[in-house]
Task: structure prediction
Amino acid sequence: MRQVGTIKELWRYPVSSVSGELLQQGAVSPNGMDGDRRYALVDAQSGIVAYPERDKRWQRSVFVRSRTAESGAAELLVPDHDWLDVDDPRVGEALSSFFEFDVTVRPYERTSAAGSATAFAVDRYDVSPLHLLTSASVDHLKSLHPSGNPDPRRFRPNIFMTADADVQGFVELGWIDADIRLGEVEGTVIAPTKRCGFTIIAQQGLDNDPEILRNIMRSGNRNMGVYCAPAAHGVLRVGDPVLL
Result:
């Protein structure tokens, strides 16, 4: 194996479709990062999970933040409110006021958090273990669209990797089926990450920019970044080497 870079950032998203938490280290398993995407925002009337990339009503979701408390509970920070446990009745009130329609939070049935829940969020996509993005891809997208800002937050990776100098372009798209080692964690690169309209929507410090996705479609066949499947339990740390 050869080193292709180092882990620069680790991200976890306790609640889908909202901003996540930046970590210094995170436990992973063959199912992905522990505590990632345990809950979803849901239209309380229809039961449909949030679709920011398709439904403009949900595009403000990225201004909501999520984190994992020391107790292990998932918490949300809705603008103009304090941090609240997702099970707090005030969360629905805060979200509904912010989105201007009835919104609630539900656990995904696949998560351990769903053990005693009576209503679950329905997965709207196949859940993939770990999403990895390289600085090479971000730099390449910037070269294609110099006036844009391809901030990694647009792409919501679990792992943002600083690529070594000889690693360039949308390089990780050529890693499919390759063995990979992330620090102490071994695994396999299993699939490219297909991009959607979430990449273009405005968020804190970033403008709405349709050219972000247009350039990915032209140069990456709509793909940028990859999904990795860990082979076993382990811990990822910022600064860990990435070997291929």
Q: What stands out?
A: Residues 202 and 225 are 20 Å apart (CA to CA). The radius of gyration is 18 Å. The mean pLDDT is 93. The chain has three helices and 16 strands.
